[in-house]
Amino acid sequence: xxxAIVRFxxxxxxxxxxxxxxxxxxxxxxxxxxxLWASVILTAAAxxxxxxxxxxxxxxxxxxxxxRTRLGEKVVQYGSVFIVExxxxxxxxxxxxxxxxxxxWGWALPPVLLLIGWMVYDRIDDRLHAKAGELYDAASSKxxxxxxxxxxxxxxxxxxxxxxxxxxxxxxxxTPEQRRMxxxxx
Length: 186
Fold this sequence. Notes:
The protein is an all-alpha fold. The chain has one domain (about 1-160). The protein contains 6 helices and 2 strands, in the order αβααβααα. This is Phage holin family protein.
């Protein structure tokens, strides 16, 4: 679970930055504050839909790979990657507040910029995951650490004389060590 949260969080932040950059570079794409929601959609599509589409296109193009030259094979591979990116871009635009104008500048060029952004992300992915993992672990230890310190305080606090006398009166057949162990459990 930790790995999935770290992966989603790191990719979300990177996608938000890329979407804002696309909005700044291309006047035909308006992103603005919609980058926050669009990044959720883009990240979910990249993690869930992109692998399925990439596999489907790879299987489809592999059947006719022997009939193409090496250059033709590269063109088909790049074309299928572009189509996958285009589908993800269309889904992002449809389900978020991002607006586009123009066929080339609004629909065709942003998937190329997303692809370049994801290539950069792939290069820094390990370092970004390590830093995000450190942040996640620090937050988890602070949340879990406060609970552990509370229970430690209760366990190490010496019992009051009245509580000690009450335990002795129980005559339950338990030794003091067994009572202490039961107190630590509950």
